[in-house]
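Dear colleague,

As promised, here are the two records you asked about, laid out in our usual form so they can be pasted straight into your sheet.

NAME FIELD: protein one
SEQUENCE, THEN STRUCTURE:
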Amino acid sequence: MIFPTFPLWIVDIAGSVLMVAFSFLCLRLVRKLKQYDLDNVIWTYLLWVCYGLAAFSVSRSAGHILKQLLLMSAHETLWLSIRPFSGAINTFMFVFVASVTLFFERIWKLYQQILKDKQKLQAMHKELLYLNQNLEQLVAKRTQALTLSEHKYRRIFEVSRDMILVAKKDGKVVDLNPAGHAMLGIDAADRSITGCLFQQFFSKEEDWNAIQQKINQRGFVLNFETDFKVRDGANIRALISGSFDKGLSQDEDTVLFLVKDIEERRSMEKQLAQADKLASIGQLSAGIAHEINNPLGIILGYTQLLLRKEPIESERHQDLKTIEKHVQSCKAIVKDLLNFAKSSKPRREKTIINKTIEDVLGFVQHHSNTDHIEILRDYDKKIPELMLDEKKIKQVLLNLIMNARHAVGHQGTIALSTELDADAGRVFIKVKDTGYGIEKQHHTSIFDPFYTTKPTGEGTGLGLSVSYGIIKSHGGDIFVESEPGKGSQFTVVLPVL
């Protein structure tokens, strides 16, 4: 070994070791950075460069250390044979590092483009988030508004006092509100109505055909009056309006019907017409009775004068008695006509109505055969004293009880009851019998003067007319409920004064 080259040898060996150490320290540091951000292209580039430099440092250092060891061991010839390989490996490492640098130059441009695209995507993402949030808020508001609107119209559907029915064009029921169930006599929980045909509730098929024709021609029908059949078999008068609602498809086309129950209104109209008719008849009867009453009085007076002069056993006396009898009968009819026409105001006094009924009932039982007739009593003891013309009220009760007696014949039941409706300030007096009853077509005429269903000679047809006039003069009302085969019930309504 030549002494002056020793420092160079030390520097070469130490420099080679340090180069390897530093290159691996750099590689370790870059690997840590890479682990922090795996997608960072800079760290990726530096990692591959460090790989190349570490390999180059190992190749270069190994070459220098091997060179010094071979020279020191006098194997210079072997080193000269290995030297080209060491130089080739070093050159390859440089080419690798250069290739990595060139490759990552293009990757860097792509990375920059990707970053721009990423920024654009992030901006679009933010914008989409903003739009999505606005859209969600808008949808929430619209959903809330739709829910409120649906609730509002559903409540109208549910609480409407008139029937609201949704049906297909062929009449198949889609939905029916609670008022409709009540009007048709169907339980609200019974959903079997859905799918039924609306026209099956019409009393007249031609009415449904007319409604369907108008809807097809004009798209609506307005205030069509018809009769409905309800579940219990009764008919009610109804007013129908309907509009065609075109759906998204032909299968979704529906007709919305609004049906009003006008049975009560029609009944009131009939009652008003009946009251007007009776008032007209009353005025006419009062005029006729007044004109007839005086001549009858004169005839009766002269007849009774002639009777005084005729012997009782004479034929003329019998003829005059016949005249007197019929004239008195005519005067009784005239008196009833005048009572019906309310010629005199009721003389009101305190009256215990239950006692009054008992008085009349006792009179009837005493003068009429009621041995085989069951009399039922159900009096409300809470009824206070009423201000009534007791004589006229007795006349009314006598008419009603005698009519019931006639209706049941020789065997049956007559029920008398009273009831106080304190809230309405009304007293109800009911006379019910188990007779045959009254046909429906007679209900509207039963209070007409001279209208009777009794055989000729058994009634004048003025009893109920006079009763009607007396009750009306007291501010009350009288009506009948009757069904053939089930008897009749007359109800007198009087105010509590």
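NAME FIELD: protein two
SEQUENCE, THEN STRUCTURE:
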Amino acid sequence: MKKLLIGTMAGAMALAAAAGGAQAQDSVTLQLKWVTQGQFAGYYVAQAKGFYDEEGLTVEIKPGGPDIAPEQVIAGGGADVITTWMAAGLAARERGVALVNIAQPFKNSGLLLTCRKDEGVETTADFPGKTLGVWFFGNEYPFYAWMAKLGLSTEGGADGVEVLKQAFNVDPLIQKQAACISTMTYNEYGQVLKAGLTPEELTVFNYRDEGVGMLEDGLYVLEDKLADPAFVAKMTKFVRASMKGWEYARANPEEAAQIVVDNDSTGAMTLEDQIYQVSEINKLTEGSTGVLDEADYQQTVDTLLSAVSPDNPAITKAPEGAFSHVVTDGL
């Protein structure tokens, strides 16, 4: 009888231990800003190399796409944390989705305006009268801030620029529908070169160099969640493992690219494409510990506020509470 009792207690303790272990494995859902590609290599690497497991996390990575707005997904309860550009995050916050930046894996920005020299664009003084391709859905804010800084109307005409709502490809530049188009250093710029144009045939403007650079891929959560210490602890584990993934991707770009390819169910991009992307992305994450640099944050805010207009309605006043170090303080 005594042996039976001891055996029963041991079994109960084992079940309790198992249950405790299951509770320790927290789940996190991450909504990406765009489709599976090298832009998000750090997260896929963290998952593939077991960095999330080491932190006791089960992470679901949800790819984005042209019909997916991360800000709306998290507002609807479809994600715990999202990646998005700061301009879009601040715009959403001013419109009622209380997003807070909790970490900034991207130290530098990769947004470019890529132009054809044979369309007569070699400096910003050549913009008037030209058609420029621009992405929308929150990606347009840096462009309108830049045009405002240059004093150029976006309503067309000889003294302004014509705005072409650009799809997520480089066709308008190749087919000369636009003199310039939006590109990212790690994606569309490579597509332009792959299409046959050479760097010598192009004029490339980096938004950062033009003084209108804004923070890009950061990690954002809903503000009320940060009142829960357990959620903060979970996000600290998530950010720590993700930054380890980014560090690994910088040291092993080809392996990281293969991991991205393995996670891309669409098969839209080749391993060569992803190696290019990861190599370029690594230049943007270099120097970041995950902690938001408040000077970079302020530059983004100041740039947006310098160009408030109906065309550029990202924010109309200085945000309050739009970032927090409570997660990265625990790294």
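A couple of things worth noting about protein two: Residues 54 and 67 are 33 Å apart (CA to CA). The first helix runs from residue 2 to 24.

Best,
R.
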